[in-house]
Amino acid sequence: MKSEALIHAYLLKGDGHAQRMSWEDVLAWKPADGVIWTHFLNTDPDVLHWMHNNSGLDPLVADILISQDTRPRATALGEGLLLALRGVNLNPGSDPEDMVSIRLWVNKQRIVSTVRRNLLSVGDIVQLFEQGKGPGSSADFIVAITSRIIMRMSATVDDLEDRIGELEDHVLADTSNTLRNDLANLRRTTISLRRYLSPQKEALSRLLIEQIDILDDIHKLRLREVSDGLLRHIEDIDEVRDRAAVTHEELVSRASEQLNKRMYVLSIVAAIFMPLGFFTGLLGINVGGIPGSDYSGAFAIFVGILILLVTAQITFFKWKKWF
Fold it and tell me: How far apart are CA 160 and CA 88, in angstroms?
């Protein structure tokens, strides 16, 4: 197998440390050696061949580990656990809602995980091993990887809350010309995250109620805390989505109010000049018998009449409190 296909391989020592393993070490591993974790890139053809022919995994498990389906799940199969989770995409230049999935097969002696793209939470586990604070058993590994995935979401959720706060301020101050697009992008992000994270909440809930030999009450209690953290993130995302909807309504209301004000001013101007246009048009027709056509002061008198008419209109509008 190519070195790129095997991303990580560690032998857990049970004290927080782990021994890095090569592909030859993985092939020579026996259950008596201890708990082994192998992490693969499941788009590599060598991984596909090894999973089906040399891994010793159930064909159903192998198919799920290399499948493109990323829906979160937690399923007990015999003495092992099949787990699929999603993490926020924090890779440089990526969108957070473009979730990264990880699939795991875990039993008491073996952990097999696969990804299609880099997941930073996996790197966190490696760092914990290097610090001597890593998981010491399969159950510890399940708790560690789930907690890291949920913890990595905190920065993204906090960023969403900061963004909606800034947009709310801009709406109140009316200082941005891109509010509509910014709100639309934020709402699209929250909707995508909510759609992807809801199945993960169900998967963690199922993990708590499944009868799994490798998980004792202490581990399930820790997983419950992880599940509560995910639930808080989902609630925060829902709050951001609702605030974005309210902010959008406020933006539309302000735009409608500004339009109404402009239309009101135009209506007042039209109402004032409508009778003026009528009289000037009436006296400007090219027929005989126009009053004052032979009197030199008729134009001044007519202008005075128009001024009085405008004054009377304005007085009437103010009396009616139309402006």
Answer: 13
Which pLDDT score, from 0 to 100, does residue 287 have? 62
With b for 16 or more beta-carbon neighbours within 10 A and e for fewer, the 264-303 pattern comes to eeeeeeeeeeeeeeeeeeeeeeeeeeeeeeeeeeeeeeee
User: Is residue 289 domain-resident?
Assistant: no
- Which whole number is the average pLDDT over 308-314? 84
Measured in degrees and rounded to the nearest 5, phi and psi for residue 157 equal: -65, -40
The residue behind tokens 């082994």 is 36
What average pLDDT does the segment 159-173 reach?
84
| Cα–Cα distance measured from residue 48 to residue 22, given in angstroms and rounded to the nearest whole number | 19
CB-facing half-sphere around the CA of 93: CA atoms within 13 A: 1
Q: Quick: pLDDT tens for 46-57.
A: 888 888 888 888
Distance from C-alpha of 185 to C-alpha of 175, rounded to nearest angstrom: 18
Residue 57 inside a domain? The answer is yes
- Whether 292 maps to a domain, the answer reads no
The tokens for 256 are 């409608």
**What per-residue confidence (pLDDT) applies to 12?**
93
**How many domains, the chain?**
1
Asked if residue 322 belongs to a domain, the reply is no
Lowest-confidence region among 84-98, 198-212, 303-317: 84-98
Q: Which helix (H) or strand (E) holds 42?
A: none
| CATH number of 91's domain | 3.30.460.20
